[in-house]
Sequence to fold (243 residues):
Amino acid sequence: MSNRPDFKVVLLGEVSVGKTSLLRRYTERRFEDTVSTVGGAFVMREWAGHTVALWDTAGKERFHGLGSMFCRGASAVLLVYDVTSRATFAALEERFLGLADSADAGCIFVLVGNKADLLPPPLKPPSLRSDGSLGAPEDAEGKGEERRPREVTAEDARDFYGRILRYRDAVAGSAGAAGGRTRRPAMPAAERACFEASAKSGRGVDEVFEGVFEMLAPRHRNSCSTVNLDGAGKRQRGRCSCS
Ligand SMILES: Nc1nc2c(ncn2[C@@H]2O[C@H](COP(=O)(O)OP(=O)(O)OP(=O)(O)O)[C@@H](O)[C@H]2O)c(=O)[nH]1
Ligand SMILES: [Mg+2]
Fold:
């Protein structure tokens, strides 16, 4: 594995939204008790011939200065919230998005609504009683599990994503005015950038990380001046010769 990552991916978000748990679920395939992160830490992963540095950061306010430092040169930022806590979602816009001003100009932003396992399960259709009347609808799954009402909808996430894109345009505009304008790759559409997942059950977690890597991979290939070409002149999937 190369010690120079092709991509730097940073997780940001409020205390206890599950950043460490998501990372652990993805990299170690397990969910267990965590302690609140101090400062930040990274793990390196190989994915389809690319080396990715995954940065976990602390949600505690006293570490926010470090969050901004960890975002320097980031290719992707995962803004993580708890789908059952409006406050954690609001904090992304109020406090965390600005920390990512130091990320790459073309940095991809992704929203991750974690703890989806806590949402009330879909109702099973009511059962037909022997006398022909309908019984009460029942939970389809997970009886006895802890449940909390949803406080952030998929539409809230898509709206916020739209605001992120406008904010990033404004940041790029002011960098341009200061003489630092660079050509930015197109940002992914909201459908590809807004996820819900559960670090506890594992549901949706691979989709988040691998969805991000898939969005980043073509950018890395395009940014290499020496791309591996096969005999037919097609781009190969794999490590660029530059790394
Ligand atoms: N039900 C449920 N609990 C979760 C999930 N993810 C994390 N938790 C719990 O939420 C708490 C906080 O998880 P962490 O992963 O430490 O949260 P964090 O965002 O890293 O927190 P900081 O490091 O303090 O910023 C722990 O008690 C986890 O067990 C999830 O998907 N579902
Ligand atoms: Mg943590």
Notes: The chain has a mean pLDDT of 85. The beta strands are 7-12, 40-47, 50-57, 76-82, 108-114, 123-124, 138-139, 194-196.
